Amino acid sequence: MSDVGDDAPDFTGSLVDGDIAPFELSDHLGDEPVVLAFFPAAFSNTCTDEMEALRDGFDRDDCTLFGVSTDLPHALGAYRAQYDLPFALVGDPDHRAIEAYDVIEDFEHYGVETVAQRAVFVIDADGTVTYRWLADNAGQEPDYDELAAAVADASA
């Protein structure tokens, strides 16, 4: 489990930002805080509400924000385009990120195993986890004001 004060685990996946390219977290550390917003499934109700809240009401000027899901990159590309998300998404179909951050959830009632638990991590420019939030249930969204404060603290 990655906790506040720990070095952020590095991971690889697929960067979806209009194109699809290899992604490695360590390539994005060093300039400003990084926010990793793990979400269970593209196109689902609460996940879309969360991504739209991050799009519309969250100030991304002082951080680099990535939405992270186990969905395939092409599905994330369609999702990003449909909801006009201005930040990149990271496809994690091999579960490297969710295993590294220990944010694994199963939706057995849907017959779906091993998706991302809804969670948010803030990582400072030095690569240290400075904020961690884990949803108690899949329908819960993060406190966006608390997240903004965590980004400001990581920027200081």
Automatic annotation (TrEMBL):
The active site is at C47. The keyword Oxidoreductase applies. It holds the Pfam family AhpC-TSA. Keywords: Oxidoreductase, Redox-active center. Gene3D superfamilies: Glutaredoxin (3.40.30.10). GO terms for molecular function: antioxidant activity; oxidoreductase activity. The keyword Ion transport does not apply. Residues 2-156 form the Thioredoxin domain. PANTHER family: THIOL PEROXIDASE. This is Redoxin domain-containing protein. It comes from Halorubrum salinarum.
